[in-house]
Amino acid sequence: MGAKKSTPTIRLRRLAGQLRRLRDDTGLRREDVEERTGLHATTLYRIETARSRPQFRTFDMLLKLYGVPTDEQLRLKALYKQSAGEGWIQPWHEDLREEYTTYISFEREAHGVRNYAGMFIPGLLQTEDYARAMVCGVLYTVDKVQVEGRVRARMERQALLTKERPLKLWAIIDEAALHYEVGGPEVMRAQLGHLLEAATAPDTTIQVVPFSAGAHLGMPGQFVILDFDDPLDTDLVYIDSQAGEIFLESDSDIERFRDNFDHLVAVAKSPDDSVKLIAEIANRQGRRRFG
Question: Locate the HTH cro/C1-type domain: which residues (predicted)?
C-alpha cells in the first residue's frame, strides 16, 4: 500500500514563500545553502515550493542562517505550527492526480475564484450527469470506480458555493461550451437549466463570451485565478491542459492572467445578457426535442 497522500495548506504555502523570500534577500543560492548547512539543494527546493514541510531543526537552522530578527522569528515559528495541518482530502481522492488534490485544497481555503472555461462548463457549475459524461469523455481510460471518485470530488467541491460564507465565483464561459451536447440532449438541457439557477445566487457571476466576439485572449485555453482573504496569501493561477496541470504564483504571471480575465469580462456579454443567451440556447434545444 502506498503512502497516504497529503496536500499543502495555504499556511504551508505561505511559509514556503517566506523562506524563499528570506533566502533571496540574503543573495544565497540553494547551492550556497547546501554548502553552508549540508541541507541538500533538492530538499530546500521542495521546502520552498510547499512540497514538503521542514523538520523544526531544519527550519530553525534556516532562520539563523538568514539572520532573521527575533520578532520575525517568533512570527514565522507561529506560522510553522499552523502549517502542520493537512489539506482537505478524502479517501476517494487517492486516485486523483496530485496537482488536482492540491487545487482542491487551495480552492477550499480561497475567498474567490475567477474561472474562464472555453470548451466546457466549469466544475463548480456542473450537474452530476454532465460531470460524469465529461470525465468519461476526457479520461476515457479510467475505470468506473475512478470515474465515480472524480465525480464525487467534483460534486463535493460545489458545497463551497452554499456554505455560511460562500465562495465568490466569477465564471466566464465560451458560448461553444453551451452548444456541446455533453452526455446527450437531456443531460445538456438539465445543465443549462442548472446554470440559469446558479446565476441567481448573490455570490455567483456568470458571463458568456459570444461567438460574435471573435478572437480573444481566452482562446489558448482555460485558467483559474484563486483569491485569498489574507494579504500575505498571494493570488494563485491554476491551469489544466493536455500538457499537464501547473500553478503560477509569480507577480508577473498573476498580473498577466488578471489582465486576461479583465479583458474577457469586457468582451463577454453582461451577466443579465448572458442569462438571456443561456435561456435562448436552452429553449432552442427544447424546440428541437419536440420538433
Answer: 19-73
* Residue 158 pLDDT: 96
Is it true that domain 10-82 has CATH number 1.10.260.40? yes
Domain with CATH 1.10.260.40 in the chain: 10-82
pLDDT for residue 227: 93
Query: From edge to edge, which strands make up the β-sheet containing 204-209?
Result: 204-209, 168-174, 112-117, 223-227, 236-241, 244-248
Give this prediction's pTM. 0.75
| CB within 8 Å of 68: residues ≥ 6 apart | 22, 76
- Mean pLDDT computed over every residue of the chain: 88
Confirm if 166 and 124 have CB atoms less than 8 A apart: no
Stretch(es) of the chain classified as CATH 3.30.870: 91-290
The span from the CA of 225 to the CA of 3, in Å, is 30
